[in-house]
Design brief:
By secondary structure, this protein is an all-alpha fold. The protein has 2 domains: 39-278, Orthogonal Bundle (Fic-like fold); 281-378, Arc Repressor Mutant, subunit A. The chain is built from 15 helices and 2 strands. It has helices spanning 20-33, 42-63, 70-78, 86-104, 114-125, 160-175, 183-197, 204-221, 231-236, 239-249, 254-278, 281-298, 304-316, 333-345, 368-378; strands spanning 349-351, 359-361. The protein has a two-stranded antiparallel sheet with strand order 1-2. Helix 1 (20-33) packs parallel to helix 11 and helix 4 packs parallel to helix 8. The protein binds adenosine-5'-diphosphate and magnesium ion. The site of adenosine-5'-diphosphate (ADP) has 17 residues, from helix 7, helix 8 and helix 10.
Length: 388
């Protein structure tokens, strides 16, 4: 028998008090409320956040077969070339959609309505050819008008005529005011329900992973300097698991939806713990930044002198011209200023804030990035890896 459609009611599932899912909810709720007191400077942290967003975008595209490697994508970024092929374009789209969420969603007043979902979908498929030629869609931002099936799934998504009703119900479920203790369960339930509906012809997976990010941002997991959230990492680090949990929830059985929720929230907790480690500057300095500079130095992406200046900046957390006197005892202040100016031009240092004469290391847009990615990978921070 082929896939069949079977309705189930969208409801909040309630875990038993003694269950491990309840423990997870309590722990995550604590993490959400905890005052953020990481010692890593915002200017440095935001660069890491951007790197993670890039990797999440690659990971999300990879789930359904995009073969772009991290290395290729990073090289294209460094070359500042416009998206050269559809695989790259697909990832750029995801990055832009994430930036859109960062700019537009905040804790107080994001409206998760149909227009918002539409906008996300448009951004996901923009400039891409529709299937079978590409990963775009014939009707960006518009619910599908044909029936679809999901490869490898026994569930048949609802017919086009039912989509609007199901989506309205889902959006009302997401936005209605329940007690905050249900917030996280709702994120997980909504992710599955969206895919169960499969409102678009293509791009459903990428859109819902972005939507999940938006919901978590709105729930306060990403306030101000806050944490970098990496919800896509939960799904893209093991696609088989992700599909297995999705499939078993498709019948809507309460026990299966509960297992799905536990799978999602466990992943989320793991990601938040990783982020908290990077917010600890001593850890970041010792395990990532200093070794990354050495890595670039060994490969001659930076000169020995540059490496020494950058290491000083990292060790001292910020660099002032006066700190360089021990490195260059014989140099005049003007010469030292020139060296700093050169590193600013090469985008390896940046002022802590506009006009300040204190600098932090900059690695998001230059060859240091390769070293940073290498080290983040070595320490298990990356959601995905290149097969080598
Ligand atoms: N059994 C399933 N039930 C519901 N959704 C599923 C199932 N298996 C896979 N999916 C979801 O469907 C997505 C693929 O749908 P598609 O519209 O092609 O999205 P995209 O083009 O963004 O990859 C997967 O990324 C996954 O999120
Ligand atoms: Mg697809």
């Amino acid at each position: 028998m082929g896939p069949v459609f079977k309705h189930y009611d969208l409801e909040l599932v309630v875990p038993e008090f003694s269950s491990s899912l309840t423990d997870l909810i309590i722990e995550l709720d604590h993490l959400r409320r905890k005052k953020l007191s990481g010692s890593t400077r915002p200017a440095v942290f935001f660069q890491l956040k951007n790197i993670f967003h890039t990797l999440e975008s690659i990971g999300s595209a990879r789930i359904e077969g995009n073969n772009t490697t991290i290395a290729e994508y990073i090289e294209t970024k460094l070359a500042e070339a416009p998206p050269s092929n559809p695989g790259i374009r697909e990832i750029v789209n995801m990055e832009q959609a994430m930036a859109f969420i960062d700019e537009n969603v905040n804790v107080r007043d994001a409206d998760f309505n149909r227009a918002f979902v539409s906008e996300l979908h448009k951004k996901v498929v923009e400039g891409l050819l529709p299937p079978p030629d590409g990963e775009g869609d014939h009707t960006p931002g518009i619910y599908r008008t044909k029936s679809v099936s999901i490869t490898g799934s026994a569930h048949k998504p609802p017919e086009p005529i039912q989509i609007e009703g199901y989506m309205d119900e889902l959006l009302a479920f997401i936005t209605r005011k329940d007690e905050p203790k249900y917030d996280l369960l709702k994120v997980a339930i909504a992710h599955h329900r969206f895919l169960w509906i499969h409102p678009f012809t293509n791009g459903n997976g990428r859109t819902v992973r972005l939507f999940t990010y938006a919901m978590l941002v709105k729930q306060g997991f990403n306030v101000g300097v806050g944490r970098i959230l990496n919800p896509t990492a939960i799904f893209c680090c093991n696609r088989e698991n992700y599909y297995r949990y999705l499939s078993s929830s498709d019948t809507g059985e309460e026990k299966d939806i509960l297992s799905w929720c536990e799978y999602v929230l466990k992943g989320l907790k793991g990601e938040i713990e990783k982020i908290d480690r990077l917010l600890d500057y001593d850890y970041l300095k010792r395990e990532i930044l200093l070794p990354a500079i050495s890595y670039s130095q060994e490969r001659k992406s930076v000169t020995d002198v540059e490496a020494r200046i950058l290491k000083k900046a990292v060790e001292m957390k910020e660099l002032r011209a006066s700190y360089l006197k021990d490195i260059f005892p014989d140099k005049k202040p003007s010469e030292i200023s020139r060296k700093i100016g050169r590193l600013k031009d090469r985008k390896m240092l940046m002022p802590i804030e506009k006009g300040a004469r204190k600098y932090v290391i900059r690695f998001a847009n230059n060859f240091l990035l390769r070293g940073i990615i290498q080290l983040l990978g070595d320490k298990g921070f990356l959601p995905i890896k290149d097969d080598v």
